[in-house]
Amino acid sequence: xxxxxxxMFIDLNRQAFDVGSVITLGARGDSxxxxxxxxxxxxxxxQPKFLDRYLEAMEQVDQHLIKHTSGTPQYTYVAELMSxxxxxxxxxxxxxxxxxxxxxxxxxxxxxxxxxxxHLQLAKSLMETCVAMYTTTATxxxxxxxxxxxxxxxxxxxxxxxxxxxxxxxxxxxLYRITGDSKYQEYGWKIFQAFEQYSKVEGGYSGLQNVESVxxxxxxxxESFFLAETLKYLxxxxxxxxxxxxxxxxxxxxxxxxVEIFDLDKVQWA
Length: 270
Prior knowledge:
With 270 residues, the chain is of the alpha+beta class. It contains 7 helices and 15 strands. It has helices spanning 30-42, 48-65, 98-107, 113-135, 167-179, 183-198, 224-237; strands at 10-11, 16-17, 66-68, 76-78, 80-83, 86-88, 90-92, 145-148, 153-154, 200-201, 204-205, 207-208, 218-219, 250-252, 258-260.
């Protein structure tokens, strides 16, 4: 029994999903989908129920949430489901973990090759949109959220801040590792240069209030995930040998901590 897409809230009184809440792969929903695949992989593929739920979820994401603009360039994005009949054309930067997750499943050959090929192509298309969230702004840094019309992508003033998030460079790391295409390194280098130019301050890096202004006030804070995730994935992206923390031996959890794959039946519980 697989729930596929799930709402972002759980009603603890009823011990069930709150069916009236938003379905999203962004804030408050992302890690659920990430761990469906990673729990399966980290336990050496010994818990197929998580794989089944992941594949069902990705099928429903593809059916209900994946959208495309009609302009040039064409953007592929993951919408939010407000109700079964209503999708919101909005994508959080947090959703940019998904290209890497799809590519990771491709690497581990988790299902039929035709499905894997589709997942990888979808990963590449989503990756281009996530990169465009950086390259289309004045600073070369991405906003927290982007919105879409039928033909284009745009930023609302309330969403124009950048807090040094890792998800795009995380997926660049996976796409480079799995495809070997150096363009993903080039994308990552441009992002790093933008951090250096607009976010670096004495003693660290700061967020920006408005990525569309090269004179934007800074946010007087450096999130811990910038060190734990953003810089870590950038560092690994430029490992040309692609041997550091190999993906057939380690799974990165949602905070970018590498955990060695283990056999669940050999674990001795205290």
